[in-house]
């Protein structure tokens, strides 16, 4: 091995070479764990230590070995700390992702809930308007002798909206009702919108609360522009309900 070669028969190796040789020897020892077990008596027992040049090597070896041990310990500690830091970072990252995922899920849940609530909400057919002619009010103008719906005050061309979620089952001319839309509501009841100046939906179309279905007008048997609105148990004339009670029962303020 390198550290045993100085026998006196050869020139001492140059400094750099020696250093390299010693380092190599120490490294080799360090690799086997022998360095730590070398003791002074063992070295002293060796013959002609001064001549062999073993002593300087081993002496330096002890120092270097201590340093290497210290370094190894420091490196081990640093590696352990680095691993801990990495694990901490990974855990923090995972926690952040989990929180973000939960926030997203909560947001989606809230959005679904809001949409579900919106779809189940009822609104007035003409926001901000009022009932100008009540349900069952008498008058020569009604073919049945009494009003089967209510009239909402509305100038011609005022947007008319579906009062709730449903499907359009009639959209067209309705005789005395003029241009009308009938919607089968999600709960199985029907709503009807008459005297429209224009119709914006077609049969089979799904509508949501507040969706515009046409514009108010004065088509059909009328004396002036307004919206005639009915709530019914079927799509047909004669199955009418009290529209104001119907809307109020569905949460509409009238
Ligand atoms: Zn009417």
Concise structural overview:
The protein has 254 residues and is α+β, with helices and mostly antiparallel strands. It is built from five helices and eleven strands; from the N terminus they run H-H-H-H-E-E-E-E-E-E-E-E-E-E-E-H.
Explain what you see:
This protein has 254 residues and is α+β, with helices and mostly antiparallel strands. Among the domains are: 38 residues; 119 residues, Glucose Permease (Domain IIA) (Distorted Sandwich). It is built from 5 helices and 11 strands, in the order ααααβββββββββββα. The strands form 2 sheets. Strands 1, 2, 4, 5, 6, 8, 10 and 11 form an 8-stranded antiparallel β-sheet that branches. Strands 3-9-7 form a 3-stranded antiparallel β-sheet, with no helix packed on it. Strand 4 and strand 5 form a beta hairpin. It is rod-shaped and about 120 Å long. About 11% of the residues have low confidence. Bound molecules: zinc ion.
Secondary-structure blueprint:
Layout: H1 15-32, H2 40-45, H3 49-52, H4 54-119, E1 131-133, E2 150-153, E3 159-161, E4 166-173, E5 179-185, E6 190-196, E7 198-199, E8 206-207, E9 212-215, E10 226-232, E11 240-241, H5 243-249
Antiparallel strand pairs: 1-2, 2-10, 3-9, 4-5, 4-8, 5-6, 6-10, 7-9, 10-11
The chain binds zinc ion.
The site of zinc ion has 5 residues, from loops.
Tell me what portion of residues adopts beta-strand conformation: 15-25%
Structural class by SSE content = alpha+beta
The rounded distance between the terminal residues' Cα atoms is 105 Å
The largest β sheet comes out as: 8 strands, antiparallel
Bound molecules: zinc ion
The CATH architecture of the domain at 131-249 can be named as Distorted Sandwich
Number of helices: 5
Mean pLDDT: 83
CATH topology of the domain at 131-249: Glucose Permease (Domain IIA)
User: What is the overall silhouette?
Assistant: rod-shaped
Would you count the extended β strands for me? 11
Helicity level: 25-40%
Organism: Streptomyces griseomycini
GO molecular function: metalloendopeptidase activity
Protein name: Murein DD-endopeptidase MepM/ murein hydrolase activator NlpD
Pfam families: Peptidase_M23
